[in-house]
Specification:
Blueprint lengths: L2 H14 L3 H9 L24 H15 L1 H38 L6 H10 L1 H36 L3 H39 L4 H14 L1 H42 L3 H41 L15
Helix pairs in contact: 1-10, 2-4, 2-10, 4-5, 4-6, 4-7, 4-10, 6-7, 6-8, 7-8, 9-10
Length: about 325
């Protein structure tokens, strides 16, 4: 397997077919934190004896939330659950649609947004079933790893009063836990990716796809681990660069906001902060989508290489735009 060619092909396929970025955003997982800051006037009151109208409105909203805290929490929890459900549905659709479309594009077939969406909807329940089963397997493995360590820890804590021995045990127990989690969940993550592609491209059922993914992983143990390590390294490097660039841009955008707040121009600062957040949010969403599409394409192309007949090398994909 030519890993450089694999990365290159995944990149160019993702770049040429930018409609995949929409689905890549939900595959990559878009997580946002909503922060509600309610600026208030200082102890001495507003300048010139006047209240700032926007600040008064925000204070009124904060006061209403405080007085109706239970209702506010119910609404926010319901909204969070609804958003989570929407993201789960779109993630299931996106995963199946991306895999099918990337494989079809690899065969130089035509795919568009609508056809990718239809493919994702067609595989929705199968993908959901596989993900639920993997979640249950993961929870079972967590219990299998954690429960013995908890029991041994309790036995050690109850059998000795030596702080040094307890500290030494905690160190080695933590190290062992990390090693066990790596040994268990790295293979599980790889099998998940292979099983998902077996489900969509191999036409198998949920349980059969997991068995096929496990078999494919063991038959190509070194290659599978190297594929995963290369992708993790790429993602780590990309996100480090993006975090640095994002931090710099964040300073450029929000330092003026802090200056306006210091000058007691609260309303202007809020407006500039909202605009700045939107300016940073748009490229973040686009880049997240592109990264998610690349990662899915990378795994799909790797799966096609791993399942190709012995001695057969897949020809380069076409260059259509």
């Amino acid at each position: 397997m030519n890993y450089g060619a694999l990365i290159s092909e995944a990149f160019w396929l993702t770049w040429r077919h930018r409609f995949l970025w929409f689905f890549g955003f939900f595959v990559g997982g878009g997580f946002y934190s909503f922060n509600f800051n309610f600026p208030t006037t200082g102890p001495g009151g507003p300048r010139d004896g006047r209240r700032d109208a926007p600040s008064e409105g925000v204070e009124g909203l904060a006061r209403w939330i405080t007085e109706n805290l239970v209702l506010f929490l119910v609404v926010m929890i319901s909204l969070a659950v609804l958003i989570a459900l929407v993201f789960i549905v779109l993630s299931m659709i996106s995963q199946g649609g991306l895999i099918e479309s990337v494989a079809a594009l690899r065969r130089d077939e035509t795919r568009r947004f609508a056809s990718t969406w239809r493919a994702g909807v067609a595989y929705f329940w199968s993908v959901l079933g596989l993900k639920v089963l993997f979640l249950l397997i993961s929870l079972g493995l967590v219990l299998a790893v954690v429960a013995p360590l908890v029991l041994v820890s309790l036995a050690v804590f109850l059998s000795t009063d030596s702080f040094g021995l307890i500290l030494l045990f905690v160190f080695f127990a933590g190290l062992l836990t990390i090693i066990l989690f790596i040994l268990v969940f790295v293979p599980l993550a790889i099998i998940d990716q292979l099983a998902l592609r077996e489900l969509v491209l191999g036409g198998g059922r949920v349980v059969g796809s997991i068995k096929a993914g496990l078999d494919l992983f063991w038959r190509n143990l070194g290659k599978s681990l190297l594929i995963w390590i290369i992708l993790i390294g790429l993602m780590f490097a990309v996100w480090i660069v993006l975090l640095i660039v994002g931090f710099i841009l964040g300073l450029v955008v929000f330092l003026p906001v802090l200056a306006l707040l210091a000058a007691d121009l609260t309303a202007v600062a809020i407006a500039m902060g909202v605009v700045g957040a939107l300016v940073l949010l748009v490229p973040f969403v686009v880049i997240t989508g592109a990264i998610g599409a690349f990662g899915s394409s990378y795994w799909t192309l790797a799966y096609l290489q791993l399942t190709a007949p012995a001695g057969e090398t897949l020809p380069p994909s076409g260059q259509e735009t």
